[in-house]
Amino acid sequence: MSATPLLELRGIDKSFGPVQVLRDVDFSVNPGEVTALVGDNGAGKSTLVKCVAGIYSADGGEVLFDGRPVHIHNPRDAAALGIEVVYQDLALCDNLDIVQNMFLGREKRSGLVLDEPTMEQMAAETLAGLSVRTVKSLRQHVSSLSGGQRQTVAIAKAVLWNSRIVILDEPTAALGVAQTAQVLELVRRLADNGLAVVLISHNMNDVFAVSDQIAMLYLGQMVAQLRTSDVTHAQVVELITAGRSGGLGLTGETGNGNGNGNGKQDSPPTETTSAGADR
Amino acid sequence: MSAAPPTIVVPPVEVPAASVPTVGSHVRDYLARVRGGDIGALPAVLGLIVLCVVFTALRPNFMTEGNFANLFTQGAAVTLIAMGLVFVLLLGEIDLSAGFASGVCAAVLAQLVTLQGFPWYVAVAAALVTGVVIGLVIGFLVAKIGIPSFVVTLAAFLAFQGIVLLLIKGGTNVSVRDEVLVAIANRNMPPWLGWALTLLGVAGYAVVQLLRHRNRGALGLVTEPLAVVLIRIGVLGVLAGTAVYLLNLERSRNVLVSLKGVPIVVPIIAVLLVVLTFVLQRTAYGRHVYAVGGNREAARRAGINVDRIRISVFVICSFMAAIGGIVAASRATSVDANTGGSKVLLYAVGAAVIGGTSLFGGKGRIVDAVLGGAVIAVIDNGMGLLGRSSGFTFVVTGLVLLLAASVDALSRRRAAATGNR
After folding, report:
1. pLDDT above 60 (res B77)
2. Which A positions 96-125 lie with beta carbon below 8 A of chain B?
3. pLDDT class for A3, splitting at 50, 70, 90?
4. What's the ipTM?
5. Is B415 within 8 Å of A132 when comparing Cβ atoms?
6. Alpha helices of B36-171 — where are they, by DSSP H?
7. Among partner residues B3, B17, B282, which is closest to A113 by beta-carbon distance?
8. CATH number attached to the domain at A1-82+165-279
9. Which residues are listed as membrane-spanning (chain B) (predicted)?
C-alpha cells in the first residue's frame, strides 16, 4: 500500500433538491488495489461514482488525485485524469465489432481515414495484456458475444486509455457462475497490473473474493472503509443494513432513525461460505 | 510523495486464437452468417435475378439493349434518394418528406433556370442549398426539439407538397430546356469514355483492396485469403464490363440517329456510391452514425455529439433528395406538381429496405440502396412492359416492399435467436 491514495474524497456532500444523497463522505482508493464499494439500494453508491466520473458535480467537499486537489466537472475531466467507468449496462454498440467498440468516440485516424490496422493491433495488445483469450475474432460483432465476453470488452475498453482508476458498476450482476469467475479474475488482474480498481457490488462473495478494502455506505454516509482481511462477512452485511456492527460503523444517533437497523435479525447469509478472505 | 504512475505491462502480442482463414472457411463463415440471419443484400440479388427471368419469359423485349439503358435512367432518381435515406434509416429514423423534398428542389431549379433565366449551375447550386436547408430544419426539429422524425417528416411531406405547388404557380408544368440539365438523364457518354471510366473504377477498386490486404498482412493481422479479394475484384470487373458493353451497343431503331453509350447519370451514381460508402465505412463520422444507430446512450457516453449526428443525417438525406430531384427534372424535362410525389418516396424507402438496410437502425450500406433501386426499377419497368394498369403496379410494388420489410424483421428475429444481435 502506498503512502498517498491515488484518489481521495473528503467530505463530499450531494443533494438533489431537498434530498441529501451523500453526507460528508470520505473515500480513498489506492493503486494496485481493488476497493469494493458496497451498500444497500439507495445508499448512494451510484451517486458517489457519478460525482467521481464527472456526471454530477458534488455540492461540497474535496477531491484529491495523486495528492493534488482537482475539480471534476464533466466526464472529459475524469477521462483526462485517467478515470474510466464501466457502467452496469455496458454501453456497447451491438452492431459494431470489438475493435470498433473499444475505440468508439476516440478512433485513431491517419488523415481523414480511420486507421483500422493500428486500432486492431492496439486492441489485440490490450486484450492480450489482460490475458483475455476467449474471443474468437476481434472483428466479431459484440452482439454475438456472451455476457462475460461483453463485460470483458467493456473493461478492456476502459483500460485501453492508460487509465489509472477503473470503476466497475456491478460487473457481475447479470452473469452466470463461470462468467462471474472469469470477470472477477480480470478485475484482480487489473489491480495486479497497478491500476486502482473500484468495484461496486451487491454480492458479498464477489467482494470478499477480490477486494483489498471494503467501503460501506449506509443512507448516504460512509460507515467505514476497512481492509477486507479485518472484517467478516456478517459484519459487512450488518454495516450495510444497520449502519453499525459492534464497535464499527456510525456512532450513536446519527443515521439510525428509521428503525431499519435494530440488531441482529440473524444477519442474512451467515453461513459465509465465501471464505475467500485470503487477501 | 505521489506514487509512480502505474503502467500496464503488456506482454508480447498474442492475437487471440488466430486461425488463418482459407477460401473454404470464408465461404463457411458466410453461409453461417446467412443462416444466422445476417443476410445482407442477398434477397435483393436473388430478387433481381428472379424478376429478370420472369419478365424476360413474359416479355422478351425486356432484355433488349434499349430497355436495359432505360432501367438506369428510370431508377436513377429513386436510387439517389434511397442512398440518402440509408443514413436516416441507420439511425432508426425515417424521412417521409424525402420525395417531396426532391420535388421542392426540382421546383427551385425549374423556377430559376426557366422562369428567372439563371444559368444552370446557379440553379443547381440553389437546388442543392435548398436540400441542405430542408435537412437542417428537419434535423433541428427532430434532434433539438425532440419531435419524432415520423411526425416531423409527415408534416413536411404535406407542407412540401404545397411549396411545390406554390413554386410552380399552381398546376402548370414548368419545362426545363437547358441543354446541360437535360443531358444528365437523357444523354449518353461516348463509348470510349464509358470504357475508360470503367477501367479506372475497377483498377482503383483493385488497388485499394490489394493495398489493404497487403498492409494488414504486413502488420500480422488476420486477413481474408487473397483469392477472395481477387474473386471480388473479378466479379466487379465482369459485371461492370458487361453492363458497359451492353450500354455501348447501338440501341437506336432509327438509322439516322445513333443512340449508344452509358447514360451520364450512371457515373454520377457510381461516384456518389463510392464517396458515401467511403464516408460511412472509412471515416470517424460514419462510425459514429452506426454507433448512434446501434446504441444511442453508448454513443453519448463515448463522447459522440449525438444531436449533431442526428441533424447531419437529415441534411445528407435532403441533399441527396435534391440531387434526385435534379435528375428527375432532367429526365422529365419538366417539373410539375407531382415531381417527387406519388410513389417516389415509397420506392426510395423500398429500395433501401429491399437492399438490406434495416428499418430498426444500425444496419445498412449505401450499396443496398443501389441494389434495391435496381429491383424497384425492374419491377416498375417490367410492369409497364406487361401493360398492366398502374393500379396493379402499385399493388405489386406495395407487396414487394412489405415482403422486404418482413424479410428484415424475420432475419432480425432469427439473428436474435441465434445470438447475432
Report:
1. yes
2. 96, 100, 104-107, 109, 112-114, 117, 120-121, 124-125
3. low
4. 0.81
5. no
6. 42-58, 65-90, 98-110, 120-140, 149-167
7. B282
8. 3.40.50.300
9. 39-59, 71-91, 120-143, 150-172, 192-211, 218-247, 259-280, 311-332, 344-362, 369-386, 392-411
